[in-house]
Structure formats: C-alpha cells, structure tokens
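Ops channel
N.P.: pipeline sanity check, posting one input/output pair.
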C-alpha cells in the first residue's frame, strides 16, 4: 500500500494536476476569505468555510479523476491488480495519496485567517473599540476545519469510486462534479419543499445542512459519523469493483 501511496502522491507533481490543484485551491480560498471576512468587516468565518465547500465541486474531481481512469487508459491496470498488494491496499493507497494533498492544502489555506487575529489585536488596543468580543472564534475555526476535511474525504472517496468505473478522465471528472453538486445543493432545494417528510429526509442526508453546526463551533458527532460512513461506503464499493474484475 505504501508503495502505491508514494507513487500516486509523486505523480501529482510529475504532471501539472497537483500544481494546478494547489494553486487554484489557495487562490480561491484567499479570495473567498478576503471577501467574506475582511471586506465584509466581520470575524464570522462560517460563511467562508461554507463557500469553500462549494469550491470542492471543481477541485475534488481534479484530484480523483485520474486515480483509476489513468490506469485503464495506459493499460497498467492489470499490472496493478497482479502486484503483491491486496485490493484494499491498492484502493487505500490511492485514497490516502489524494487525501494527503487535500488535507495539506486545507491546512495551508488556514494562513488566510491569520490577518483576522492581527486585526483583532490591533482593534483591542484602540480605545474606540466598544464590543464585548473582538476577534475570530478559535473553536469555530477548528470545528469548521475538521468538518471541511471530513466532507472533502467523503467527496474524494466518491471520486475514487467514479474513477474506477471508466477509463475516460474527463467523464470521471464530470460525473464526480454532478454528484458533489447534487449532494451540496440538497439543502438549498429543501427550502422550496413543503412536505415535512421529504424535507426531513433531505435534511438528514444533506451534506451542507449537517455542516451548519460546525460553523457555530459545535462538533456534531452524528455528522462526523455520517461523513466517515460515506467515505467507508464508497471505498468499499471501489474494492468490490476490483474484486469483481480480479475474479470475474
């Protein structure tokens, strides 16, 4: 598994995909953070992290579209399946490679929040500051970062599964974009549904709706379990795809 992990992680930076992903992610995160906090003159970071989730519609497929589709296109899939590694090891190696790049970029993007603390400390020194709490809420930021990472990992597992179904990277990217888009906009669509039973079901499965508690500094353990379950289910589905190919 570790050999596949190193190979996949290195491949992101042999090709341009890794550089494009990191560059676009950090640029988009910086712009969103500036717009939702500094320009809006607020310390509320919940809006920033919520907007960051919607950037995953484009960013996550960049990471996952090549993971298995490229193996099929280059005809190296059979070599991979006959390598001395289990199918779980193969799938997890690719998953953790994409997850490492994703989590690393998310953590680096947290530097965008540093100016809020600098500005808050400056404002505290001002005699004109007439507020009870000045500055961003650290528990809120920590809970949002945890939520963002868990949601990103769930989306990576979905993209990994989609990539295992086709040899066309563009098709894998488009299908992943569509799935992530639907999962994120369910909460918005739910506002226009007036049947309580349907609203309850959609609210329960909505990725964005469950993220709301994280934006208030609350670690929602049911949401954490839900996001981890999505990751586990799609990783298992990917394993089943290759189990069928190996023995089918």
């Amino acid at each position: 598994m570790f050999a596949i992990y190193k190979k996949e992680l290195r491949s992101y930076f042999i090709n341009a995909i890794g550089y494009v992903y990191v560059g676009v992610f950090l640029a988009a995160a910086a712009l969103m953070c500036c717009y939702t906090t500094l320009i809006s003159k607020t310390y509320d970071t919940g809006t920033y992290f919520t907007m960051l989730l919607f950037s995953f519609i484009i960013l996550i497929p960049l990471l996952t579209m090549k993971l298995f589709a490229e193996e099929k296109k280059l005809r190296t899939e059979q070599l991979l399946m006959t390598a001395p590694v289990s199918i779980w090891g193969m799938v997890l190696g690719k998953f953790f490679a994409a997850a490492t790049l994703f989590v690393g970029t998310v953590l680096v993007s947290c530097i965008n929040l540093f100016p809020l603390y600098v500005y808050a400390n400056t404002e505290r020194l001002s005699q004109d500051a007439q507020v009870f709490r000045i500055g961003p809420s650290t528990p809120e930021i920590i809970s949002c970062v945890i939520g963002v990472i868990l949601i990103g990992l769930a989306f990576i597992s979905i993209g990994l599964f989609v990539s295992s179904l086709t040899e066309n990277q563009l098709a894998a990217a488009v299908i992943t974009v569509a799935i992530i888009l639907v999962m994120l906009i369910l909460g918005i669509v739910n506002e226009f549904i007036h049947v309580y039973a349907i609203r309850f079901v959609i609210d329960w499965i909505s990725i964005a709706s469950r993220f709301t508690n994280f934006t208030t500094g609350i670690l929602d353990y049911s949401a954490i379990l839900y996001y981890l379950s999505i990751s586990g289910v799609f990783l298992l589905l990917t394993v089943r795809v290759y189990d069928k190919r190996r023995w089918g």
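N.P.: looks fine end to end. Residues 158 and 179 are 8 Å apart (CA to CA).
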